[in-house]
Amino acid sequence: MKKENIEIIQINISGEDKPGLTTSLTDILARHDAFILDIGQSNIHRSLTLGILFMTTPDRSGQIMKELLFKASEMNIAIRFTPITEEEYSHWVSGQGKNRYIITLIGRKLTAGHIARVTQAIYEEGLNIDDISRLTGRVPLDEDERAPKTSIEFSVRGTLNDKKQIQNKLMALTEGGDVDISFQKDGIFRRSRRLICFDMDSTLIRTEVIDELADRAGVGDKVREITERAMRGEIDFRESFEERVALLKGLDVSVMEDIAVNLPITEGVDRMMKILKRVGYKTAILSGGFTYFGNYLRSRFGFDYVYANELEVENGKLTGRYTGEIVDGQRKAELLRLLCQFENIDIQQSVAVGDGANDLPMLSIAGLGIAFHAKPKVRATASQSLSTVGLDGVLYFLGLKDSWVEKLDC
After folding, report:
1. CATH 1.10.1060.10 holds for 3-94
2. Catalytic: 199?
3. C-alpha span between 75 and 18 (Å, rounded)
4. Is the pLDDT score of 146 beyond 60?
5. Residue 4 pLDDT exceeds 70
6. I want to staple 332 with a disulfide (CB 3.0 to 4.6 A). Which of 96, 148, 151, 362 is the partner?
7. Catalytic residue among 201, 211, 328, 359
8. How many CA atoms within 13 Å lie on the side-chain side of 30?
9. Torsion 361-350-103-391 (CA) sign
10. What are phi and psi of 132, to 5 degrees?
11. Best CATH choice for the domain 98-186 from the list 1.20.1260.10, 3.30.710.10, 3.30.70.260, 3.60.20.10
12. Annotated catalytic, 211?
């Protein structure tokens, strides 16, 4: 159809959702050779909202609207027609090239207040909301049976003068401790991530293994104090590691198996790993802890790679020394790069998750770096933070919906 002989019309339909409704309406457009420029539909509690933007010719538009009105009356739904000028349409199309971002909210329970504050921040930064979707399952009324977590995703677009400004604003909204908010640029790398690397101690497990070993060696308090200072970034990790390992001298290696089988696994690890493997992610443990425990987790949950520190053993006892290179913060970042090269992926396709100061180097270079239940210094530095739910909350930062996950029979 010639450009000077066209009409652009937007129709908005609302009412009770019925099988075949969309088919009936689009069939009318098809019979009159209308060209659909855009279409969108959403359903909330059996109520449907459908929008269609179509192009036709003036000699056909009247008959199309007449038939749509009859069909809407027959199906007991409301329909509204809005003419769109070519200038309005061209201006709308020109906006589609703007940067797009994804904002994800996660919490045990999300309130209207959380959503209001986030949408206010979006408005203040001059961004437009294109879509809002729920990633978690529907919330039951019975509080005792409700889903243990809730996640909502906003798709927004616009041009930001300072990306860090909106990140800081959104992170400030999480200071109450009842909601986590992720802000990511929406692009090809976000939709094609392939590798996810985890710290082990206080991330995959709810303890520091070296502290467990120290308790068995009778030096728990001293080692735990050094561990906390290292995780807060107050002392160099390498120096603290050597001091702590030296205190384990003489410990019988038999205690390692007992500690391994009784490790307190972080909430959500099992579910997360099943799903990540099913959707094709490669997974790695990059730990400043010890390979014995990393290998135990690999055999239990199916991690693809484990890199950690090796304790030296002589005559069935720890010598207080280690073998090989220390896996500190810089080594973790180096290993992340090497794994990306080995898997033949761009580093922007990688994800890193950790809680301590020695995780910051890998969090900063990964395509998506997530501080998990992190120390204050790490949380303040990382771009993304997850503190309100278990480790399977990472799945929502990756954009995976519960409705998709349920189909994996996990």
Report:
1. no
2. yes
3. 8
4. no
5. no
6. 362
7. 201
8. 6
9. negative
10. -125, 130
11. 3.30.70.260
12. no
> Tens digits of per-residue pLDDT, 159-186?
888 888 888 889 888 888 899 999 999 9
Of residues 226 and 43, more confidently modeled: 226
The pLDDT confidence band at residue 227, using thresholds 50, 70 and 90, is confident
CA 341 to chain centre: 23
Question: Active-site residue among 180, 199, 355, 359?
Answer: 199
Q: Which amino acid is at 80?
A: R
Per-residue pLDDT tens for 257-281?
999 999 999 999 999 999 999 999 9
State how far the Cα of 370 lies from the Cα of 119, in Å rounded to an integer.
Answer: 23
